[in-house]
Amino acid sequence: MGTDCSATATPTTAWSPRPSALGTDPVPFEQLVSLIDESRLAFDPDTRTGVVPLAGNSDLGGGTESVVLGRDAAEVRDLKGRLSACIAGRARTEGA
What we know:
By secondary structure, this protein is α+β, with helices and mostly antiparallel strands. Helix content is 34%, strand content 11%. A two-stranded antiparallel sheet has the order 1-2. The longest helix has 23 residues, at 73-95. The protein starts with 28 loop residues before the first helix and ends with a helix.
């Protein structure tokens, strides 16, 4: 009378990561947190806006994983742009 919860896996021959939505290279998580803090993008509980880092060097695709919260779509786009710029800036200074 139980429910069958079994799953069938479909093998894949090649895995290709998704490109980063921010168009950035992956960074280690600790560095991602530092960049967000230094750029003053961290989530602010008073305004309920900002960036919450989830993972650096994500295995879900190229780049990092973060939640970006804004009051509206324009603010989310602005925060994403600023996050992308600070990660890209880190890559430029490391590559110089």
